[in-house]
Amino acid sequence: MPPETPPSTTPPSSFPAPTFSSVKNVRDLSSVPGSPILPNRLYRAGMPSDSCASDVSLLTAQPPLGLGVTTLIDLRSATELAADPRLSTSPAYSPYTSIKWSSKRTLRESLPPRLKIPDPSLPRLDRATGLPRRERHFVSLMDEKRYVAGTLQRLTKTSLAKLAAAAPGAIVSRRARARGKKVFLDRINNGGLPLLNDLILQMAAKGIRYVLELCADPSRHPVAFYCTAGKDRTGIVAAVILAYLGTPAEAVVGDYSLSDGVYKEMGDDSAMVGALKQRDLDPDVFLKAPPEVMRQTLREIGEHYGSVEAYLDFIGFGEEDRQRLRKALVEER
């Protein structure tokens, strides 16, 4: 762990505070106490699909009228995207070129040929507007198959035996299917959000690396990354970045906990959590963001990987990459 970076002494940003009307859970990561990130570099948010006209203006207008977000990163699963009726029609997305990430490609290989540039230091300008080109990257961090596979890996021998006992008759017996499903869901509900976070860190490694590569590119700033409520997958990405940059652990915990009431604000009892339908999960477990969840997650990063830096090595985001990220986020330009 590098020495803690002291809180930024940069004066308050001239950019407007992210006070959105319809988009939930939006905040600048420079606002986290002790965060060295400079204003208007990185935002975390809930999905902007339901943006009203004032939200669209705040998101896209150039400072000082808006945030002028250049890059959107959508962390939702294909199931969630398919369930979003405004995925293609929301005016919030219309200024952005959509790019679908593939886990089999690097950042540069994932870009369509017409968007590639020979030198990453060159400005990426839109020919029509002369402004930085706007992109929306789809980077699914957790889908149903990964969640199921990861949870099965963590089932105890006793639970596996129960699941196997139910399996032979599952095709013909509704009762057997219900027993098998109960064993599986009991494991998910008992593991709760710490299990979900652990699965994201392990199984979404390539996606997280891709997101960090985008965040480390100054020409793509400001960046806003989001999932459905901006709580779990968004919270993990924010926590990894903040922790690496030396933000105090309790400040990282506090930032996570600000998402505690976001599902209530959304009024969505059928929201997707970890890419599984809410009706299958315990809402008292999965709709909240208690501080102990992030404390446990940070502890487990240390226990499982050794440090945040070691975790970043694990996902292939090495020292040189980390220095680019630090420079992009904390240095004036």
TrEMBL record:
Pfam family, any one: Y_phosphatase3
Bias-annotated ranges (Pro residues): 1-15
Stretches for region Disordered: 1-35
InterPro entries noted in UniProt: Prot-tyrosine_phosphatase-like, Tyr/Ser_Pase_IphP-type
Name of the protein in its database record: Tyrosine specific protein phosphatases domain-containing protein
Species whose genome carries this gene: Tetraparma gracilis
